[in-house]
Amino acid sequence: MYVFRRHIARKDNIIQMIRTLLVAGTRPNFIKIAPLYRAFDQHPDLNPILVHTGQHYDAVMSDVFFRQLQMPEPDIFLSSGSGSHAEQTARMMKELEPVLLDIKPDVVVVVGDVNSTLAATITAKKLHIPVAHVEAGLRSMDRRMPEEINRLVTDAISDFLFVTETAALDHLHREGHSDDHIFFCGNVMIDSLRRFEGEARAVNQKKEYGLAAGEYVLVTAHRPEMVDQPELLKIFMSSLFEIAEFSPIVFPMHPRTRLRIRDAGLEEQMLSTANMYVVEPLGYFEFLSLITDAALVLTDSGGVQEETTVLGVPCATIRDNTERPCTVESGTNELIPLDPEKIVDAARRAVSGSWKKGTLPELWDGKAAERVANALAGAMKAL
Ligand code: UD1
Ligand code: UDP
Questions:
Q1: Burial class (CB in 10 A: 0-12, 13-18, 19+), 292
Q2: Ligand number with the minimum distance to the CA of 263
Q3: In this structure, which residue's CA is closest to atom 2 in ligand 1?
């Protein structure tokens, strides 16, 4: 059962305020929700209430972000935990429904494309509560990705769509959405980056591994399309073993990947490869610090494609598509297929300093959450 502890009497005009229930459940959600929570809290018309679904629960996947991003403890904790898509999503919906019935928020705000996003959207809409989706309209056009299903369903039934890049506007228009409920506000993930960039640089995480700036490749991987398929995971890991022959690698490993590496029988080789630092998932400051000083970031993450573009750091995304095309078109991101020759070539190019330079996408300026708060308050008043 949940506990709803705060916010009842924090602001004088609480009765007239818009009760705004923010839902977050995974590592990237926390990084996106933090600036929104802050902007809503500072807005005269919005009263934020924070729900943690429990999708990510390890301290290194959750608590550290609340601490570093200076977020209050969630008002409500659900205990959805891990499981199959259906199990996990259903548990979240079942636990969230009584919370929504009790709190009766005026609007539910969801971010990103994870199962927590989908579960909260469906549950709220079935109770006739308006939903605002922050990071709407992104499309990989690959419906085998669970995130693509979450994006399509969430956008189809949300009332307010907050967009990070122009390609998303085109997708939403094509899917029949009209401009009266679409708001191009920029990227809240970049708000967190801009706010905490100084703290991250001060950490100097590379020193932990005795490395210098520009001499290592930073790796993340957790997409089930790759890591859940032993044959594909082996191809990826063999590319890394080859890169480690000419460049140090730092690989903060997602718990899903850790399990799959073990299952695929790759752990021993990985741990005995010289020049390869495989570590637990890192805190936000520690990870940003490593991005800043990397020669290349090799990843399948969504958010990391955006952060490398803003920091001007070379990024090779090991995927056939991206839902974030501006990072390729104007940023430092390059899509690289899962082919050892091409992956190793990307690493050689980056280490030798020959990688394209990028420019900043429109409105990725650290002020997106403020724009979302203003637009949401205006739209809710107009309802
Ligand atoms: C989820 C999101 C993905 C996002 C990623 C961010 C969905 C469908 N996927 O993927 O879009 O990019 O989060 O990191 O919502 N586990 C732990 N400890 C934890 C959390 C997970 O050990 O705190 C392990 C469990 O074995 C679990 C597995 O990781 O089964 C996968 O977790 P899950 O939340 O289902 O998906 P992610 O791969 O994290
Ligand atoms: N991140 C982190 N520690 C890590 C790996 C990633 O703090 O060890 C941060 C990263 O800076 C980015 C976010 O987590 O802000 C991306 O999350 P993830 O790759 O798990 O999810 P995705 O963006 O692919 O949904």
A1: buried
A2: 1
A3: 114
| 208-254 confidence digits (pLDDT tens) | 999 999 999 999 999 999 999 999 999 999 999 999 999 999 999 99
Q: Counting ligands in written order, which one lies closest to the CA of residue 55?
A: 1
The separation between CA 247 and the C-alpha centre of its own chain, rounded to angstroms, equals: 28
Report field, pTM of the whole predicted structure over 0.90: yes
Alpha carbons within 13 angstroms on the beta-carbon side of residue 258 total 9
Convert the pLDDT of each residue in 77-134 to its tens digit.
999 999 999 999 999 999 999 999 999 999 999 999 999 999 999 999 999 999 999 9
CB 69 near ligand 2, within 6 Å: no
How far is residue 122's CA from residue 317's CA, in Å, rounded to a whole number? 31
Contacts of 332 (CB under 8 A, 6+ apart): 308, 309, 312, 313, 314, 315, 355, 356, 357, 358
Q: Is residue 243 within 8 Å of 340, Cβ to Cβ?
A: no
CA–CA–CA angle 206, 195, 285 (5° rounding): 25
Task: Supply φ then ψ for residue 369, to 5 degrees.
Answer: -65, -35
57 lines ligand 1 (CB under 6 A): yes
Measured in Å, residue 89 CA sits from the centre of ligand 1 at 12
| Ligand 1 centre distance from Cα of residue 361 (Å) | 28
Ligand 2 within 6 A of CB of 155: no
Q: Find out whether the beta carbon of 287 lies less than 6 Å from any atom of ligand 2.
A: yes
Hey, what domains does the chain have and what are their CATH numbers?
A: 3-187+364-382 (3.40.50.2000), 195-352 (3.40.50.2000)
